[in-house]
Amino acid sequence: MASRGSRHAWGRGCGIAALALVGFGGCVGDGKESSATGASGSTSEATSSSGTTDGMTGTATAVSTTTDASSGTTGGTTATTGPAVCEPVETSGEETAGCPQTCDTFTQDCPEGQKCTIWANDGGNGWNDQRCVPIDPTPKQAFEPCTVQGSKSSGLDDCDEGLYCWYLDESNAGYCIAFCTGTDFYDAECPYPSVCVIDGSGVGPRCIPTCEPLLQDCPQGATCLPSHDAWICLEDNSGPYSGADGDPCEFVDACDPGILCAEANRVPGCWASGCCATICDLNSPISCPLKGEGAECVPFYAMGEAPPGKENIGFCGLP
User: Fold this and answer.
1) Could you tell me the CA-to-CA distances from 293 to 38, 202, 261, 287, 314 in Å, in that order?
2) Computed from CA positions of residues 40, 252, 11, 176, in that sequence, does the dihedral angle turn out positive or negative?
3) Distance separating alpha carbons of residues 102 and 81, to the nearest angstrom
4) Torsion angle, CA of 277/301/50/204, rounded to 10 degrees?
5) Are 254 and 225 contacting, i.e. CB atoms less than 8 angstroms apart?
6) Distance between CA 36 and CA 34 in Å, rounded?
7) In the chain, what are the domain boundaries?
8) Rounded Cα distance, 203 and 201, in Å
9) Are 168 and 154 in contact (CB under 8 A)?
10) pLDDT tens for residues 73-99?
11) pLDDT in tens, 131-144
C-alpha cells in the first residue's frame, strides 16, 4: 500500500486533496451524514487529537462516537489482539465462505493472503462490522481506481491490504482509501493528504482525504465539506432532484457539491431543520442564488476561529 506521507492527485485535473467530515455515520450511499452546520464551523459533536505524518501535522477526529477511557475501546467495538486464526476465505459473488472472523483494521491481523476490512454483516448499506477477506492478486494502491463485488458494503474489493474502496458510483467503481494505522485511534496516522476519522458505527477508523472547499477538488461523486478545523471529501448523497440553494437538508451530505447544509435561521425561507447554501469566497463574493431574499456571502467561521488558510471561506446566508 502507499507509504505514509506520499502525495497523490485524484485525476479529473484535481490537485492534491485534503480532509473533512460531518458525521457520515459509516453509511454507504444512504445519505445519513449528520446535521446542518452553523457559522462556527462545528458540524457535529467530536473530539480530536493531533499526530505527525512525515513532518506534516494531521488531525484525528472522532465523530459521533464514544470512548471508554479505562478500556480504550471506541464505539463499543473491541479490537482483537494477536493474529487471527482462520482457514482461508473463499469468495463466491457477494458471499464469503470460511471464517469471516472479526479482525482489527489497525493491525491487519488476518491470515496471510487476506486483509481486514469493513462490511455490513446484516446485508444493509451501512458498515457495522470488520472481517477478513482475500487480497486481490493484483491489488490497487491508495487513491487508485477500484471496484467492489456484490453490494457496496460487502467489503469485497480489489484494494490492497490496509485499504478499502469508497466513493462508489452506480457500477461500484471508486477509489482506494486507507484505514488509519497506529496502535489506536488517538495515536493514528494517515497518508497525506488525509486525516483519521471514525463515525458512529465505531468500526474501521478511516483516512478521509482532505480538500479545498472553493475548488471542490474531490473525486467524482464526492463533495468537500467541513469537519471542525478541516474540510474532507464525503460521498455526495444529494440525489438528482435536491441539493440546490434553499432546498431542505436533514444530513450534511444532502446538498450538491459546492453547497453545504446550513442552519435554518441562516437561509432565507428555510422551513426545515437545515437548508442548502452555496460556499463562497469572502475575498471575491459571488451574487448568491437567494440574493433577492437577503442572502449574501457571510463568514463560515466565527471571528478568530478559522483555521489557517480558511479565513476567506463563507456561505450564502443571512448576515
Assistant:
1) 19, 42, 18, 12, 18
2) positive
3) 11
4) -20
5) no
6) 7
7) 259-317
8) 6
9) no
10) 333 322 222 333 344 444 444 444 454
11) 999 999 999 999 89
